[in-house]
Amino acid sequence: MAGRSSHTEDIKAIKSEIRRKVIAARNALSIEERIAKSAAIMERLFELANFLEAKTVLFYMNSGSEVITSDIIRKSIEFGKNIVLPSYNLEKSKIIPLKVQDPDRDLRPGFREILEPIPNRSKQIPFDQIDLAIVPGTAFDERGGRMGYGEGFYDRLIPCLEATTRKVALAFECQFVPQVPMESTDRYIDIIITEDRTIYKI
After folding, report:
1. DSSP letter for each residue of the chain
2. Which among 9, 54, 140, 182 could disulfide-bond with 132, CB atoms 3.0 to 4.6 Å apart, if both were Cys?
3. What is the CATH number of the domain that holds 187?
4. Structural domain of residue 113, as residue ranges?
5. pLDDT of 28-40, one tens digit each?
6. What's the pTM value of the predicted model, to 2 decimals?
């Protein structure tokens, strides 16, 4: 047991260091670079067959130096997509998917000051109605390995989605590492879109 505990602690320490380095690299991008790269990522997403075919898409509101999703969400609504955003239930450590029709009126700061739906203005959407899930993360690898922010919200969310629901990450090239250390509870991503390429899980 001691060996297993030590191994888990080692992986967590490695993850913490990768997370720190990748977020530092992402933070080093200027706002002009993030805007330009995010626009390129949006173009690639809008060309993705899975996106074009999807009726209901789970997004997240960007925070910090993440890929700017707010513009992507607004344009997706203009395209007629049903947009679902996460409401974080901290007591149960899970995500509640809520439909948003007007991001300017339907959101307020929530967990970590991230904008999330106001419950009485939003309708809960069953997981099996989500056709495409856009999943945040800090670091990724070309095999679809994903590292989140350490709380495990999306590792618990992903198994709730239908097997046919594609899990997509939007990331800058600076967020790639040779290999993300994956534990048994960690979940892989199907597609990663960056400013330079669209990567499908090997």
Report:
1. -HHHHHHHHHHHHHHHHHHHHHHHHHHTS-HHHHHHHHHHHHHHHHH-HHHHH-SEEE-----TTS---HHHHHHHHHTT-EEEEEEEETTTTEEEEEEES-HHHHEEE-GGG-EEE-GGGSEE--GGG--EEE---SEE-TTS-EE-SSS-HHHHHGGGS-TTSEEEEE--GGGB-S-----TT----SEEE-SS-EEE--
2. 54
3. 3.40.50.10420
4. 2-200
5. 999 999 999 999 9
6. 0.92
